[in-house]
Model the fold of this input.
Amino acid sequence: MATRVFLLDDHQVVREGVRRLLEADGDIVVVGEAATAGDALERIDATTPDVAVLDVRLPDGDGIDVCRQIRSQHPEVACLVLTSFADDEALAHAVMAGAAGYVLKQIEGNKLVTAVRAAASGHSLIDGETTRRVLDQLSRAHAEREGMERLTPREREIIELIADGKTNRQIGAELYLAEKTVKNYVSAMLAKLGMGRRSEAAAYAARLAERRAPGSGAHP
Done:
């Protein structure tokens, strides 16, 4: 029997290209398509696919949330997340959502066909080492965000200035605080974050700023 595939992508030209590619050998048939998350979830019931190929970025949500709902309601449907961007955080979310694979749109056509067949056969395209790595990174990022939330607004200002390489005296001049007051803030901040050195706090703040920067590739 042919492998039944559902396509979710908001670009019609992409869906048509993937359809032609998958159906070329005759053992895969595209049984349904959607351009939005809402339409996809409505149509999955009627089309009963073996594999759902899901774009990440959608007008009304993202493919990883769709994957999570499909896997919850239809655990027999394997999901391949298809995206234009390599992003470890999105990969980690895809793993936790139960995706069988995370595939870049730049993939060669024959490899996408192979990935669909593998997913339909119950195989995971995400190896255990990659899963552990990205989940560890996600766990660390979550812990760092929680740490920042423990700081007061003034302490957040100070840690960002530390990340910019400023001394206590320079920070005091910028914030109209005594140098000793800044030193006390820094000591309290390091204690809250479980750090012993100023350089650790600077690196920590720089990592958070990088994740918040536009184009950082963080999962929406």
Q: What stands out?
A: The radius of gyration is 23 Å. Residues 115 and 122 are 11 Å apart (CA to CA). The beta strands are 3-8, 28-34, 51-55, 57-58, 61-62, 78-83, 101-104.
